[in-house]
Specification:
The chain has 19 helices and 6 strands. The chain is mainly alpha-helical and 457 residues long. A hairpin with a 5-residue loop joins strand 1 and strand 2.
């Protein structure tokens, strides 16, 4: 998130100032001008919060270097002066961007926080401990800023949402909500569980899809190099001397000629599809289409679908407090799945049915078309007996056990399949090479006999 500070004048000449945050610079400026237009304000200045690098010295001590976020150079200078430092230099950081926190570090931070909260340690002390012990620079600086904002009395939800580009939107929302709720420990524990499952699922998905895809791609490139460059160097020698080629050798040479003559086409067909798919996934409509069809992939699609329902039910269980307040937990749980198709169906079909027509939870979920029959049956039972919250947790645990077991079996199947593909390719290349080795030039007598027969005819 980008933070802005602005000054403006009212119609009566009174000067005012304010601050807000937005996901981009353009969006932030648009917000400020819309606010000015609505309240008849004349904007004087707009400043974006940036990172400044400073060198300062206190008394005769050795100069120290540091970084500080501020809206202007003067703010940093005034802050250092108040602390008794002599400012030597202050410059705006040239490349001011923040990286996302590694998932492992984020999970560690949330888990430790949950454990310390269970021990009744004040949250301010927890933040101080984590700031001192955290090695990740981005996380350390972020926790410092959060701690400072909370000490100033800032709203916890607003504070954490300012760093959603670092924590992730859902995690930032949950951590901000935890401080305002009466069940902070439970929300931190549930968030840690959610992050752990997300990390574990991505790791397994890499093992099931990405690693095999990379292996096959490298194998494909190796075969292309062999067929397109190494093999022709040998085979064309036989052609040069008029030697008849065996079937597999002749076919491989023909394929080699095709690849060389159409190298641009082959490169385009190899590289363009993944690039187009990646670019399509970045668009709103394209991402929606991909997220929709990924659930239809044989075997893996079903596992992904059940994992989405698991995540949904786990988040819903954490936030749900009663039927009168079910809409907000449903919306947030849908966003937590990270699947745009699942989220859109719940938010644009299920929720409007509940609000406008008073439809029950199970009927609304049935209309959305993104819940399995098993999930609908269990949720219906929970809705009728008034145990929807606990039923959601039971369903989440059930799908977690099922998907972990089935995904493990799927990964083993994929690994065996990749090994079989590599074996088949290697055998094919070996056979072609062995057949090439059996090629023999024609004997001189046979060549002369053919030459005489041609002259007679």
């Amino acid at each position: 998130m980008v933070e802005f500070k602005f000054t403006a004048k009212k119609v009566n000449g009174q000067s005012i100032s304010g601050s807000l945050s937005a996901s981009t610079i353009t969006e932030g400026k648009k917000k400020i001008y819309r606010l000015a237009e609505k309240n008849q304000l004349k904007i004087n200045t707009i400043e974006k919060k940036a990172t400044f690098v400073y060198r300062a010295r206190k008394g005769k001590e050795k100069p120290v270097k540091g970084e500080q976020k501020a809206y202007s150079k003067k703010e940093v200078e005034d802050a250092l002066s108040k602390l008794g430092f002599e400012v030597l230099s202050i410059n705006k950081k040239l490349f001011d961007f923040q990286r996302k926190i590694p998932q492992a570090d984020l999970v560690t931070y949330v888990k430790i926080s949950a454990e310390l909260l269970e021990q009744k340690l004040p949250y301010g002390e927890i933040l101080t401990l984590l700031i001192n012990d955290t090695e990740n620079k981005t996380l350390k600086e972020t926790l410092k800023e959060i701690n400072n904002d909370l000490k100033k009395g800032a709203d916890s939800e607003t504070t954490f949402l300012k760093y959603q580009n670092i924590f992730g939107k859902f995690t930032a929302y949950m951590l901000g909500l935890a401080s305002k709720s009466g069940n902070m420990t439970e929300i931190y524990r549930a968030t840690a569980k959610f992050l752990e499952r997300k990390q574990e699922f991505r790791k397994n998905l890499r093992s099931a899809l990405i690693t095999p895809a990379v292996t096959l791609f490298v194998l494909f490139l190796a075969v292309l190099f062999y067929v397109g460059y190494i093999f022709p160097e040998t085979a064309k020698l036989f052609v040069k001397f008029g030697i008849d080629l065996p079937p597999m050798t002749a076919f491989t040479l023909a394929m080699s000629d095709f690849l060389i003559e159409n190298s641009i086409l082959v490169a385009a067909l190899t590289l363009l599809p993944p690039i187009v798919l990646w670019r399509l996934a970045l668009t709103k409509k394209g991402g929606y289409i991909i997220d929709k069809h990924i659930l239809k992939i044989p075997v893996l699609g079903s596992l992904i679908h059940k994992t989405l329902i698991e995540v949904y039910c786990r988040v819903f269980y954490t936030l749900y407090s009663g039927s009168a307040e079910s809409i907000e937990p449903i919306r947030i749980a849908a966003e937590a799945t990270g699947n745009r198709y699942f989220e859109e169906r719940v938010k644009n079909i299920a929720i409007p049915l509940m609000i406008k027509r008073g439809v029950g939870v199970t009927d609304a979920f049935t209309a959305s078309g993104v819940f399995t029959e098993t999930a609908l049956s269990r949720l219906h039972s929970g809705e009728e007996t008034g145990t929807l919250k606990n039923t959601s947790l039971q369903l989440a645990n059930y799908y977690e056990s099922e998907t972990v077991y089935k995904l493990k079996n799927f990964i083993e199947f994929v690994q065996i399949s990749i090994a079989m593909v590599i074996m088949v390719v290697m055998i094919a290349l070996t056979l072609v090479s062995a057949e090439t080795a059996t090629v023999r030039p024609k004997t001189p007598g046979a060549s002369n006999q053919i030459y005489v027969e041609k002259n007679i005819t």
